[in-house]
Amino acid sequence: MRVDLTNCDREPIHILGAIQPIGFLVALTSDWMIARVSVNVAEYIGRTPDEVLGRPLGEVFPTSVVHDLRNRVAILRGPDAVERLFGCQIVAGAKPFDVAVHLSGGQVVIEAEPGSGEHGDAGGMVRSMIARLDQCEEFATFFREGARQVRALTGFDRVMVYRFAADGSGEVVAEAAKAGIGSFMGLRYPASDIPVQARALYVRNLLRTITDVNAVPVPIVPERDETGAPLDLSLSVLRSVSPIHIEYLKNMGVDASMSISIVVEGKLWGLFACHHYSPRCPTFERRSVAELFAQMFAMRLESRERKETVEYERRARDISDQLLGAVASDETLLNDPDWLADILTHAIPADGVGVWIAGGYAFSGVTPPTDDFRKIVRALNATAAGKVYATDRIADIVKGADAYASDAAGMLAIPISRSPRDYVVLFRSELVRSVRWAGDPHKPEEFGPNGPRLTPRESFAEWKELVQGRSQPFTASEKRVAETLRATLIEVVLRLADEASAERQQAGARQEVMIAELNHRVRNILGVIRGLIRQSQPSEEAVKDFVKLVDGRIHALARAHNQITDDHWGPAPLGALIEAEAAAFVDEHERVVVSGKPVMLNPQAYSTMALVMHELVTNSTKYGSLSVPQGRVDIGWEKNAAGDLVLTWRESGGPAVTAPTRKGFGTTIIDRSVPYDLGGAAEIDYKPDGVEARFRIPARHVSEPQNFAGPAVKFQRPSIGHPQTPPHQMLTGREVLLVEDSLIIALDAEDIVSRLGAAAVSTAASVASALDHLDARAPDVAMLDINLGDHNSFAVADQLDELGVPFLFATGYGEQALLPEQHRGRTVVQKPYTLENVARAMDELIGRHEGVDGRSRA
Question: What pLDDT band is residue 166 in, cutting at 50, 70 and 90?
């Protein structure tokens, strides 16, 4: 029985129900009952399969042999372990057997073949072979000596060292062969010659032998167990092989073969491929010695490759140090591509270097045309950020790159920043070379006895291919060196960036203007959102409560945004945040007591804590200590030993507290915002006499105010003068003019002044419209948005001033709003509009209008 191999891209080719006829196989259940045997078992032990199947092994093999086998099974470790015994007397009076034991699918598999009687010093033999290897200085002689040693040990006509390339193809890099049979040295074989499944099997089972390609495989009975599964022979030493491989060897004229895996760092590096032109079966002991030698060979190879890499990287570090030292004394060298190319190509051979920094470029040596270099940089931006990228064919990622392949066919790109993406790119010119293949690798597939796709190649005559459009590939060592150089180049770039601090300071003023513009736009957006919520609320009380809840959260963010952008985007005082949140809900100053040394929070932490504080104050006002006159909240903070800020919230004097039965969004904000957004911690304790909460804000989010060196202070929040309940109707009977270019914000403002008692409200979206209103009828009071698209409302303010109409400004620019000299100091309302800040501003404006010029900030 064999598995259908016509779909080998899906079927595991290692499951075959047959062995080679050079020995026999017995498979045992966990209680050592014989479950399967090869049909040729009678040839070796004198009993037919029917006579041994289902019987205990002790009734078939001598007790001493069973004892030895049990000991070997007991020391099997790992899924791919195989143990061996030599000279086992399985049949009394007969020749001894050499035995291999392994586990397969819960069964013990025993394979035996007639012993050779060779019981030499295997360890001494391998030591002698390795000693010869160690005398080889170059890799070429190392590979050749390895092939010679395996051929001397096994006696095959030809032994090759076969190395896999990155694309899966293989190349014969060393050969030892008897005279007169030709040479395969230097030939390459396409990746399809060894399927992926076979490569995976080569890593598990290091040695495979085919003693005679014309031998008829011996089936195993029963071919399937009670579950319908065949016996997995992946680790079998006698396993028959795919008929595809047999046909492949016949096409090569080979009658026997053996392959020994060379595994380096857990990956299949290559093979010792052995060919014989007549049937051949090396003894089990010699095969075992060859397998041990291959393992030692792989260890020596790994050590040599690592030593070569270490030396290569040491030279690269020396070059990195040279680069750093040179730039330290002359920073202009980085702008010299010829000097940079000379430095880099000493570590990584290349024909040209291109540098791309902040959209500027420079070249040295042989490089692509300028426009094509831009295309290359764009293509590189689509690769993984922060990693060296190498290819021997640029045309694989850039369309049309074949046109300049003669100058730049391959490249190695070293990113030296993340944003913007800057690169140093090493180019290699086209390397036109002739590759010797063992047959045409591009030959179309044909139908054969085993179906399409698996038809073995019939021609192994040498076939030469002229490879064009590719450069010499960049090796793994060169890529590692490029990573080292990348770190050095980034350090150089950062150093030059530090030296450009004066230029950054000059750009500071422009940055402040940009921040102010951003702040204005964000506040307008918040105003639009709040207006949409307020204007869209239906009459149902539940939905109104929801709208009020969301409106409060947005306003909390707006207040926090105002604090962190008052004069620049940066840290803001924690005390101001708490005061602003408490002032929005509580009027009596003695009910919220705050203590702690002044500290600053960065913008991210400030916005997060604004939402947390808003939810705490809101919940306390509804259900906690702030919901009753005698209730109180104590808020304090201090730094712990790690420099983190620990903030505590304690309620007292309120109604009895019980833990919430349902976790709403507000509770989620309190519980998870600080851990999730800031990487800190939050603890909430619903004590009966008052909620207690503790928050730990990591030190990276906390800073000290400048020029502060005083002791910790304790203070009470001062009383805030703006109304906490629906305000008195200070606009009763008055006509109000609103100048605002956003309809939603205008509707929100109109609703607010109407609630303040305005008899009539007129709105204008532009300067011209506002002036038309003034020409028709002068209002009693006006509120002007400073920024109206591309214009401002100062012309309207001038007209109102001439008419003697009291007015105030509104803006999202905060304290950065620049007013003309004649209006300097006028009352300014910060967006987004709220009932409280508009009421306070209007109260002040109207109260001082007759005889007192109201000029303040609301």
Answer: confident
- Confirm whether 677 is domain-assigned: yes
Query: Is residue 693 within 8 Å of residue 673, measured between CB atoms?
Result: no
Does a structural domain hold residue 557? no
Backbone angles phi, psi at 413, to 5 degrees: -100, 130
Same domain, 657 and 602: yes
CA distance 737 to 25: 101
Mean pLDDT within 770-783: 92
Which residues constitute the domain of residue 806?
500-550+723-858
Domain co-membership, 45 together with 103: yes
Across the beta sheet with 681-687, the strand order is: 681-687, 690-697, 645-652, 632-639, 592-595, 714-716
- Residue whose token pair is 């047999």: 246
Whether 765 and 840 share a structural domain: yes
pLDDT in tens, 675-732: 877 889 999 999 999 999 999 999 999 988 865 443 333 333 333 333 344 455 778 8
Instruction: Give residue for tokens 């051929």.
Output: 151
Number of domains the chain is built from: 5
Is the pTM higher than 0.70? The answer reads no
CA gap 610, 572 in Å, rounded: 11
Q: In the chain, what's the furthest Cα-to-Cα distance? A: 132
Using CA atoms in the order 95, 98, 104, 107, what is the torsion angle rounded to 10 degrees?
40
How does DSSP assign 423-455, residue by residue? EEEEEE----EEEEEES-TTPPP---TT-SS-P
Residue for token pair 């095959």: 156
3-state SS, residue 279:
coil
Residue 686 included in any domain: yes
- Average pLDDT, whole number, for the chain? 80
CATH number of the domain at 91, please: 3.30.450.20
For residue 359, the domain's CATH number is 3.30.450.270
Please report whether residue 12 resides in a domain: no
Q: Write down the pLDDT at residue 854.
A: 40
